[in-house]
Amino acid sequence: MKRLPVLALLVWVCAVFYVGIFLFVGGFLLVRLEVNRTSTCADVLFPGGAEPKGDFCPTEPRFRRVVVLIIDALKSDFARYDPANEAPRPYENKLPVLNEMVSTQPSRARLYTFRADPPTTTMQRIKGFTTGSLPTFIDVGNNFASSAILEDNLVHQLGQMGKRVVFMGDDTWMSLFPKKFHRSLPFPSFNVKDLHTVDNGILQNIYPTMEGGDWDVLIAHFLGVDHCGHRFGPDHPAMAEKLTQMDEVIRAVIGRLGNDTLLVVMGDHGMTDTGDHGGESQKETDAALFLYSPSPLFPNPGSQVEPEVVPQTDLVPTLALLLGIPIPYSSVGQVLLPLFSTAESPTGLSQGEALWINVRQVNRFLETYSSMAKDIPPESLTQLRAEFSRISSEYLKSVQEGKPVSSELQVSMQEYLTSVRETCRASWARFNPLKMAVGLSVLAGACILCYVLSELSSVVVSRGVLKVPVVCGVVVGGVVAVGQLASQGYVEAAWCLGGAALSSEVSFLWRSRRNHPRGRLALARLLAPALLVLLLRCASLLSDSYVVSEGRVVTFLLCTLSLYVPLRLNWDGLLLPPPPSDSQKPPGLVPALTLPPSVVRRESATMLVCVGVLVGSLYLSLSFHNCREEQGACQPSPFLSPLSRVQDSRLRNLHYVLSLASLAAWAYLLHRWLRHYGNLNSPGVTVFAARFLLPLASICTGLHWAVSATPEDSFRNLADLIGLAQVVLPRAAFALLGLGLSLVWLDPLTVFLKERAPLQSRGPSVPPPKYRASTGISPQAELHHLIPQLYQRIRRSLEDGVPGGPEDGGPAVEAYGLGTVYSAPLVLLCGLFGLGLLLLHPEGMALAFLLLLLESGALLHLHACSTTLSSLQRAPSNGFSVPWAPVVLWSLAACQFFHTTGHLPTFPSIQWNAAFVGFPQGHTGTLLPATLVTLNTFSSHILFAVSCPLLLFWPLVCEIRGWKGSRGGEEGEDAVMEMRLRENPQQFSSALLQLMMRYLFVSGVQVFASVCAAAILRRHLMVWKVFAPKLMFEASGFVVSSVSVLVGVSLVMRVDAAVGSLFKKLVPEASR
Amino acid sequence: MWDAEIRGMASAHAIIASSVFMATVMPAVLVEKFSVYGTHLVWLYSVAGSVAVVNIAVYWLLGIGPPTKKNTLSYKVSRLIRSCLYFLFSCLFFHTVVVLYGAPLLESAVETFSLAVLLSTLTTLRCLCILGPNVQAWIRVFSRDGAMSVWDTSLQITTGCSVVGAWLGAFPIPLDWDRPWQVWPISCTLGATIGFLTGLVAAPVWIHWHRKQLTYKIK
């Protein structure tokens, strides 16, 4: 067979897919590095200590206390008051207190529009207005697992300065700032339909707390308005009620404020007309900000330029400087100037000083960030640096001269801060539509490529088609690189790769179109029911509800498709033996091609049993699912929790026994299968792996579970031993499995050769040797197992041209296990690999893995039976080609078992415990734990992708003995099983290529669909919660499974090479 | 002869379809606070009952059915009992299939079984009427060359449409629209009924359209 072209084509297609994913993700997912440094008061403001008076914290803070009332989703419209409005809508004119204060006490109160940055979801917003930064979808930080904010933030700084922070309200804060509050009263925020629990909880506590005096900073987060918007929308009487309640709260709080206290009333984001938020429309981003202080704070209106819109990040430096704490390190906000004193009324920090501190801090952050990450464009960075050094020298000059900061300098400082903010925003908070579009088109092209390749596989294998596209891609990529170098001075890899991928795709498609003008690529074939199911699956990725209940959707589709297979066969009249009245048949049909009725009945029965097993295991698999946050009443599967957490000891024992039984069943079934096909006879290393390493590793796994399930305090005197066992046992299992895998790779043949008759020597003229595999005729072997054997027919009979029977020439060599020479190592590899992956899962998942084995076995058998039954219709030329239905089933099953092994496409559901299997003390590097977690997460993708070639082999393995021979063909009495592949290397390679392309197509189309979902719905409410994580998981799943596909294919190639050399060794022996 | 048969089938189908509408309208007069969503099971059983009665009556009056070999009373009684048993089995079969598709196992089992009863009425009952209690014949009918008369073809079409309708009816259940008809099993029963009605309309049209191509073997 042609090994290199097939592998090269696969690698090329995968590379094109990767480029597409890389481009799209680069334009869609904005990544920001978290700077994990914190500011302190001791930070020196002037470089080189040139200036003596340079404390980061103002010595005398303007306010000692602050009350922050956060009213979730307080849109800016809600806060406005229009006395001329005669018939206000439910959300209008309901907060008159704000307007009253602003108009009656202009020096004490201000109302601004408070503009949030997208994504306008509560958690992201809390992060935004406490760190002063612009959170993106992924903030790459130290901990992925918990949602706690590790970046420097206001709450942390307040704690550092000894301020007592009291929090009450939305419990999201508790996960963001664990153990940071002096006192906290969280209330559950999850139920969107509950308008009152959080608010009433705050109202019961806020006034006693304020009067109690045991606080410096009081944060109260009301959720009622937001929940009311989600439930009823803003235009509803309930909103009026809620806003009126908030009005009363603000009045009551103002009445209780001390002179040294600042009141901040703010919304974290707005809402659309339907009450939703999350996107970046102005209705969602514009919230209200109201500031009030009992003592005069603001200059008289008109004396200064007032900002119309305050960006949300600006609150952080303002509050920090007013309270006398350092500005958090990563803040890119700008102080609100009206809150600082001017020359006329010198109290506290002057405007110039505040701005200088702010500029200094922002510059320091920019320097740190640009040294860590390269996503800020260098030219704007140099510009900003130059600007800063100018400001810095001017400020120093004016300070040394003792003059107040000039207004021009103030303006340029403000401009500097704004431009830093905009630069950061451009690189963190904006999509790159061009990159997204190019990525999408590369992906679409790759999908078409897969389809075309799978349709034209036989043509493609025979001719070298890869040269032109690859050359084309390299040339275009190089040209793009040179062009960029000439015009911009640096090379952006993404565009070069994109250009290369697109051009190689186009050139390939153009050539294949030119080569095959006749309608071989009939589009009507895309409407086959199996592909319709795939289409439904892709369409389901575009709806958040379907993504949320993805596990069930996939199971439903799988169930449909697996029931469709027998129905379709029945529709074609192939499920039942044809009626005996054959006389009426048209003479065109060759009667010899029909199967005997008994065979048809047996195959149909097997097939129906397989469908039963398949559907049954699909149903059972539903009980292993985990639950998403969005699925309200769902209970996660009890098998997902590790045994050590199960309290009831009887239940724990039951779980343990169940897991152990399924582990044993896994090992036994594999062993049984290999023995059945005679693959356990040879003395080779692979057989050694199958016979000894597999059971040993299983024993290690079982013992490891037992050890890790023992309660910590039950065997105190054995604690050391248990600790040791927790390290040694899983590592031993890993080592055994690794050894097994490498042995399988080293010598994949499981063929046992037995010489039966003395070899006859012949003359020197050796014609091209011929070999053939056939069934055993030895009654012993027949009795034991189904063992196909290889005859090396002696050369005399070949020379004479007599198709000699075994008794004629006498068999030279018998080969046990030759019929499954390709599938046995693959099955063994998957078995070993599956055991290793199982070790990374919670113990209860052993049941799910057993289910996986059963289901994939049933699927393979179903495919084999339907191939046999429909072999009448199939033209013999493409004998090995695998139809779409089993491929789609196989790929959907991979997705289904992703859910059945307790995974979900969300970041919190990643099973982090996998990183600590065998490493209970933790790791030093990040590569190993990342690998372990990846293996755990995508275990079903890996297993199904590696074992994908089995779809090609299984119909041959299950070939009916005796029947094909009775057709009177030239095979005689042989059941040659997988040796058929050996006999038709050309067809073998084309069928293998086709199968792999189909598998890649099915997975790639799903990636494409989720990429489309992310691109189309990028302003959807659920984009950061549902679609973007789904895209991440789908894309990484594709990468993992395509790599696994390559592994599986290269194992097949390895086996093929080994078989080739085996025959080469045999034939000269026989001919000697 | 062809046209007469198609016309007869079209009118039979019209009668059956009108029975579905009657079963929806009549209880509104008789039962207090009747609505398709609110008192769903009442509607379901009224539709199932009326479709069953009208089906049996129409096919008995038209004289379509399997040729009976014997005409004795005991044979007829045994056929009747077998038919009832088959109907029951088909209800259980549909129930199992629906559960395997992901319906809740224990809670709302009554609703699931009612859906199974409705599906059996729309599919199995017609098989029983046209083919008699003969599973071999049923399996034979649902193959490409299995139809032996226009009635067999119409059976293929209506059965397929009903099952596909019920299958499509499961689609809106996970959506977060909070509509009353998204409650299990309302969307599926509605889907099955609508599919059945579509099949009743589509069968004569399709047969008329393809009357040139259709050739039936003589029994």
Automatic annotation (TrEMBL), chain A:
Query: What topology in the membrane does the UniProt record assign?
Result: Multi-pass membrane protein
Q: Which UniProt keywords apply?
A: Endoplasmic reticulum, Glycoprotein, GPI-anchor biosynthesis, Membrane, Transferase, Transmembrane, Transmembrane helix
Which residue ranges does UniProt annotate as crossing the membrane? 7-31, 434-453, 465-486, 492-510, 522-542, 604-622, 654-674, 686-707, 728-746, 821-840, 847-864, 938-957, 999-1017, 1037-1055
Q: Name one GO molecular function term.
A: mannose-ethanolamine phosphotransferase activity
Question: Subcellular localization, per the record?
Answer: Endoplasmic reticulum membrane
Pathway participation:
Glycolipid biosynthesis; glycosylphosphatidylinositol-anchor biosynthesis
In terms of one coarse class, where is the protein primarily found?
endoplasmic reticulum
User: Which InterPro entries has this protein been placed in?
Assistant: Alkaline_phosphatase_core_sf, Phosphodiest/P_Trfase, PIG-O_N, PIGO/GPI13
Q: Which GO terms describe its biological process?
A: GPI anchor biosynthetic process
Its cellular-component GO annotations read: endoplasmic reticulum membrane
Question: Which PANTHER family does the UniProt record give?
Answer: GPI ETHANOLAMINE PHOSPHATE TRANSFERASE 3, PHOSPHATIDYLINOSITOL GLYCAN
- Which family, according to the similarity comment? Belongs to the PIGG/PIGN/PIGO family. PIGO subfamily.
The name on file for this protein is GPI ethanolamine phosphate transferase 3, catalytic subunit
Taxonomic source organism: Chanos chanos (Milkfish)
Recite the lineage of the species. Answer: Eukaryota, Metazoa, Chordata, Craniata, Vertebrata
Encoding gene, per UniProt annotation: pigo
UniProtKB/TrEMBL annotation, chain B:
User: One biological-process term from Gene Ontology?
Assistant: GPI anchor biosynthetic process
GO-annotated cellular components: endoplasmic reticulum membrane
* Keyword flag Membrane: yes
Which pathway or pathways does this protein act in? Glycolipid biosynthesis; glycosylphosphatidylinositol-anchor biosynthesis
The protein here is known as Phosphatidylinositol-glycan biosynthesis class F protein
Q: Where in the cell is it found?
A: Endoplasmic reticulum membrane
- From what organism does this protein derive? Chanos chanos (Milkfish)
Residues crossing the lipid bilayer are 12-30, 42-62, 83-106, 112-132, 153-171, 183-209
Signal peptide residues are: none
Q: Does the keyword Glycoprotein apply?
A: no
The UniProt entry, under InterPro entries, shows:
GPI_biosynthesis_protein_Pig-F
The UniProt keyword set, sorted, is: Endoplasmic reticulum, GPI-anchor biosynthesis, Membrane, Transmembrane, Transmembrane helix
The cross-references to Pfam families, in alphabetical order and at most eight, read: PIG-F
User: Gene encoding this chain?
Assistant: pigf
The membrane topology noted for this protein in its Swiss-Prot or TrEMBL record is: Multi-pass membrane protein
